[in-house]
Design brief:
alpha/beta; eight-stranded parallel β-sheet; 8 helices; 8 strands; 222 residues
């Protein structure tokens, strides 16, 4: 089970410090949410911020590309220091080619799907990607409420992967906190992305991460 803090909720005036805080607290990697204002209704950051995070930590970095035509920018994010490049099925009409492009760059390939996208849309690439990201909110903004019906989707994806003998990571992103984390783990996810639950906690990012990990482990035990 892995916890991946999203810097979307971090204080960008102290970005390096806040990345180092969660790294020291045991984060498994760091997520950079990239939004273009077209695929999702928000604009965030690009390769320069990935490069800044790279300078702040030796942890793996995942770039969640919530952008149209992600294949045009894969090289830029790879060069900036991202280790895992996650593209959306909805924005990647030639998904086989895009996954192959990521692998040629020497990076891990992730495929994300929105809440309304059926699992049938990724069944032809189940054996190609290193990670599948089930969005548990509609992407575009931090701090949204968890869509509980996505737990069934996680269960079904885990069954699909198990049926092919694949131990591919299932990541969930959106509304993850102390109550939803164990539910997601119990459903079959093994990677949790959390932004506001970590960076908005008055106790600070390190303490928040420890609490989230403890909650998630209760789901694994169950």
């Amino acid at each position: 089970m892995e916890i991946v803090p999203s810097i979307l909720s971090a204080d960008f005036t102290r970005l390096g410090e806040q990345v180092r805080q969660v790294a020291d607290a045991g984060a498994n990697r760091i997520q950079v949410d990239v939004m273009d204002g077209r695929f999702v209704p928000n604009i965030t950051v690009g390769p320069l911020v990935v490069a800044a995070v790279r300078r702040a930590t030796s942890l793996p970095i995942e770039a969640h590309l919530m952008i149209i035509e992600p294949e045009r920018y894969l090289q830029d994010f790879a060069t900036a220091g991202a280790d895992l490049l996650i593209v959306h099925q909805e924005a990647s009409p030639h998904l086989h080619r895009t996954i192959a492009q990521i692998k040629r760059l020497g990076k891990h390939a992730g495929v994300a799907i929105n809440p309304a996208t059926p699992l049938a849309m990724i069944q032809e690439v189940l054996d190609l990607a290193d990670l599948f990201l089930i969005m548990t909110v509609d992407p575009g903004f931090g701090g949204q409420g968890f869509i509980a019906s996505m737990l069934s989707k996680v269960e079904r994806l885990r069954a699909m992967l198990d049926g092919r003998g694949l131990r591919t990571d299932i990541e969930v992103d959106g509304g993850i906190h102390g109550e939803t984390a164990p539910q997601a783990i119990h459903a079959g996810a093994n990677v949790l992305v959390a932004g506001s639950a970590i960076y908005d906690d008055p106790a600070g990012p390190a303490a928040a991460l420890a609490k989230l990990r403890a909650a998630a482990l209760s789901g694994a035990a169950g």
